[in-house]
Design brief:
Elements: E1 2-6, H1 13-24, E2 28-32, E3 37-40, E4 47-50, E5 53-54, E6 60-63, H2 70-82, E7 86-87, H3 91-98, H4 100-109, E8 117-118, H5 126-132, E9 138-142, E10 151-154, H6 157-169, E11 174-178, E12 186-193, E13 196-204, E14 219-222, H7 227-240, E15 244-252, E16 255-262, H8 268-274, H9 278-289
Parallel strand pairs: 1-2, 1-6, 6-7
Antiparallel strand pairs: 3-4, 4-5, 8-11, 9-10, 9-11, 12-13, 12-15, 13-14, 15-16
Helix pairs in contact: 1-9, 2-3
Length: 301
Amino acid sequence: MKIGILSRNSKLYSTSRLLEAIKSRGHEAHVIDVTRCYMNITSHNPGIYFKGKKLEDFEAVIPRIGASITFYGASVVRQFEMMGVYSVNESVAISRSRDKLRSLQLLARKGVGLPVTGFARSPDDVKGLIEMVGGAPLVIKLLEGTQGIGVVLAETEQAAESVIEAFLGLKANILVQEFIKEAGGADIRCFVIGEKVVAAMKRQGAEGEFRSNLHRGGSATLIKLTPEERSTAVRAARIMGLNIAGVDILRSNHGPVVMEVNSSPGLRGIEEATGKDVAGMIVGFIEKNAKPFNTKTRGEG
């Protein structure tokens, strides 16, 4: 099987592990930088060119597309789909999950547990917005932020008003969410492949840091999930339409709440914390499911 990894850097841990897993299972692997791809968009002979050569005979691709190139990256995945190539995560699902507001609205519509979340445009509505999410402390998130960037914990209502007004003054789109104090600066990353959570880890923020991102000094440990947490993670991935997803959950007093569904979850933290060959599981999933024109566009909205 000829499998492409859509990644800008072959030396990244996740990319190199996927390369290793693909080759160890007897397949042909290629790393393709989507920003260097250009496309021939025609009805009968759609094509993708990479560094001047037409990409042909690929049976599957694994998108590892960064948030900053979501639009172009998803368009390349869509072109592969037009050519009949199986993508482990489809273009529609990637775009859907990258839109923080849209993804939360879709999850809420299906009854998935979420933190109380507010969204507003006018500075005149700031007080009502803060009251709606239960007052301070609260979390303010830039819609375009990733990896913990653009996430602020406002300890007091005065601080919350100042930060929200500042963001709105810059014409930035923000979400305001209740602060789940009982989580203690920790979250749970559930790695979903297909209809199953194959690995899970607890990420604990560094001392004095409410964000649990590993690259911000957080630590990762193995954790045992409850049946409700497993079910929540699988449902969230299914609603987004993702076959491969990192679902981030907080343990709250009212059950598990989903913070985010990531379409390109990293492999280093989860493999090191659990000792599991997650890259191999991804390739195994492709072996079972890769068929020409097997694009289902799962999920809604």
